Amino acid sequence: MNNNDIIRRLRYAFDYNDAKMVEIFAHAGFKVSKEQINDWLKKEDDLEYQDIVDIQLAIFLNGFIIEKRGKKEGEQPKPEKSLTNNTILRKLKIALNLKDDDILAILKLADFQFGKHELSALFRKPDQDQYRPCKDQILRNFLQGLQLKYRPEKKSPSAIEKNVDVEK
Asked: Helix (H, G, I), strand (E, B), or coil: what is residue 134?
């Protein structure tokens, strides 16, 4: 998945406006303008579209953790220069204070069956034998499940295009 799609889906799932997005970046000590956020949210074929790079998404996710859990004492985590789907999933797990069963329930909302052992492999260190990379399909379904959990009354963007209601 590309970073712009991830930030779009999170913004939609949690119903954040431009001011809230600016505030989340500010939690992590990063100043961003509403115009810059709008450029990240535009479709790829728009002339003003800009890619959000890994470090910027990492800053947003760190700010999202602070937004949801509060600022921890001491030195704040440094944003990663390079993100993997595993890291993104881990940061979302931390921000939303999710346990493995919660993540599996969210995936189930998106009609995605996943086992507890498969899930634990996603959170292992890359140098461990049991480590497995988080594929785009898993992250996409997790984000879809978040939307269904936090905005169940709303139609998904793809359902709006098709004029179809999202099943609850």
From this structure: coil
